[in-house]
Amino acid sequence: MSAGSDLGLACYARGSYGPTITDANLVLGRLGDRLGNGMVLNKDLAREAISKLADKLGTGLEETAYGIIKIANSIMAKALRIVTIERGYDPREFTMFVFGGAGPLHGVELAEELNISSVLIPPNAGVFSAFGLLSSDYRVDRVRSIVKSVNEISEDEIEYVYDELVDDAIRE
User: Fold this and answer.
1) CB-side exposure of 65: number of CA atoms within 13 Å?
2) Which residues 6+ apart lie within 8 Å of 70 measured at CB?
3) Fewer CB within 10 A of the terminal residue: the chain, N end or C end?
4) What is the per-residue pLDDT across 23-65, written as a single tens digit (0 to 9) for each?
5) Residues 6+ apart with CB under 8 A from 17
6) What integer pLDDT is reported at residue 62 of this predicted model?
7) Are 27 and 46 in contact (CB under 8 A)?
């Protein structure tokens, strides 16, 4: 499973709730043992986490790690199909643009699965999302439900709730 942006992974030596995609990538040699920021990944702990699963499955370490990658890629390919094929777009007509911490690790296999012939990995792909966040306008969204039928609520009550939401957003 993916740990998302939480560094609770075996390979980060911060404990583990099971082997993750990062652990599998490290075990398979798809990641080096040192990240760009100097952080060292612990391959032994990643191997240990995956070995526990391998023992339960009765498979080898590398086979289990590769299985983790295949499952992750399958889930990501399903998401890509939702935003392309299910919306009427043929992914073969596009270049796959990969970004994020692990996008470049999976992009080529995903492109192959979707018959996409071209993959673009931008410089600094790992910080692409963070750059987008930092360069976008600051925005605060506030929502509140009023559980009443339309005939039971007054315009004044709606304006009051609206004003509270605006004040709260301004304070933030």
Assistant:
1) 20
2) none
3) C
4) 999 999 998 888 777 888 889 999 999 999 999 999 999 999 9
5) 3, 8
6) 97
7) yes
Please, which pLDDT band fits residue 4 given cuts at 50, 70 and 90? low
Burial class (CB in 10 A: 0-12, 13-18, 19+), 117: exposed
| CA dihedral sign, ordered 53, 57, 61, 66 | negative
Residue 110 — pLDDT band, cuts 50, 70, 90? very high
User: Measured in whole angstroms, how far is the alpha carbon of residue 170 from the centre of its chain?
Assistant: 31
85 close to 113: Cβ distance less than 8 angstroms: no
Q: Which backbone phi and psi does 146 adopt, to 5 degrees?
A: -120, 110
Report residue 95: phi and psi, to 5°: -95, 135
Q: How far apart are CA 49 and CA 26, in angstroms?
A: 12
8 Å CB contact between 161 and 146: yes
Q: Of 62, 94, 65, 99, which is closest to residue 81 (Cα–Cα)?
A: 94
